[in-house]
Design goal:
mainly beta; 4-stranded mixed sheet; 10 strands; about 15% helix
């Protein structure tokens, strides 16, 4: 019985250590331009292709940074000549938003309660973009 409890405590401790080895941040990119953009995310350890964000579309990806790399300087790029650096620390929110502006530049990172203003139009970053598509 004691050995079972000891094993259980050891397993819980291992799980806690494993969970604390990285900081995860959900990165969402909203494209306000008329062109699709391929988005890449870089951490100190790797560069990943997030995917192609269509015109007026959005794409999300979870970014994982090792705690041993923090504070980490990360980079997001949306096509040629449009990139930003941003830090990931223990205090970084679990969700960040970036916007590709109408002229193709990146803006951000924005937090949950921030509002991106573009061409006199406010965009609430906390709500998903909803579209209606008509099939013919």
């Amino acid at each position: 019985m004691k050995s079972t409890r000891l094993l259980l405590v050891a397993l819980v401790a291992c799980a806690a250590v494993a969970a604390g080895c990285e900081k995860k941040v959900l990165v969402t990119v909203m494209n306000h331009s008329d062109l699709a953009r391929t988005v890449r995310l870089s951490t100190p350890d790797e560069t990943m292709t997030m995917g192609t964000v269509g015109a007026e579309g959005r794409q999300s990806m979870t970014l994982a940074v090792k705690t041993s790399d923090m504070p980490a300087q990360c980079r997001i790029a949306a096509g040629t000549g449009s990139d930003l650096s941003f830090p990931v620390t223990d205090d970084t929110p679990s969700k960040l938003w970036f916007h590709i502006t109408k002229d193709g530049k990146l803006a951000g990172p924005y937090g949950k309660n921030d509002v991106h203003t573009e061409s006199e139009k406010n965009v609430d970053v906390s709500e998903p973009v909803r579209r209606t598509m008509e099939l013919r």
